[in-house]
Amino acid sequence: MSTEADKSDTMTEGSAMFNLRLITRGRAASILVGITLTVMLLCYAAAVSAQDRCWTIGGSTGTVDEADLNFVTLTDNTAAVSGAVTNVIADIRYNVVAVDGVFGGEQNMKTLTVRFADNGTAAQVIVRLRRVHMFTGVLTTLVQLNSNDYPASTVAQTQSEAFNYQDPEFDFQNHLYYIEVQLIKTGAGGNPLIRSIQICHSTPC
């Protein structure tokens, strides 16, 4: 026969076990929150580090094709087709150099980010990342961004294209890399221009 003392002891043990479960769950929750915050901070630090070391260039710093020198205007950070021109495909090239931010990333994934303006049907901007093998001369297009894939705008916009999924890393020992930009104007009202280009590796976060 159980006594009142036995019942009291049983209730005390039950309360202790319940409190222990609460404490254990609380600690587990705290550990989970701590791990989550740590991962977020590491991801943020990795993203900031990658952004700090990206390859970035201004639109006005490229090399205009000799045949198009009279059709392109370079001002501040912008390359644009001259206002008097009504029909032209102007070529501009930008040399890509090896910096930390273009290497690595989840599955070697990279991002090409471009700030450009395309104000409608009489304008178009095409940006291609090219790779040339130093010894064979084989030319490969790694990624292309076409302004016609985005809404037209009279002001500059920034858009990105991801590329290089599970492909080999950049290999500057055996290849050279450059950006080829085409500013296409097919009417008096067209105003294609480019302001900046960036290549970064993408973090897994």
Give a description of the structure.
The protein is built from 1 helix and 11 strands. Residues 33-51 have low confidence and may be disordered. It folds into 2 domains: 1-52; 55-201, Jelly Rolls. It is of the alpha+beta class and 205 residues long. It has one helix at 4-52; strands at 55-58, 63-64, 72-75, 78-81, 88-96, 110-118, 123-133, 139-146, 153-163, 175-185, 193-201. Strands 1, 3, 4, 6, 9 and 11 form a 6-stranded antiparallel sheet that branches.
What is shown here, in short?
With 205 residues, the chain is α+β, with helices and mostly antiparallel strands.
What sort of overall outline do the alpha carbons produce when their principal axes are compared?
Answer: globular
CATH architecture label name of the largest domain: Sandwich
N to C succession of SSEs = HEEEEEEEEEEE
Report strand %.
35-45%
Q: How many structural domains?
A: 2
How is the main sheet built? 6 strands, antiparallel
Q: Strand pairing plus helix content: what structural class? A: alpha+beta
Query: On the 0-100 scale, what is the average pLDDT?
Result: 83
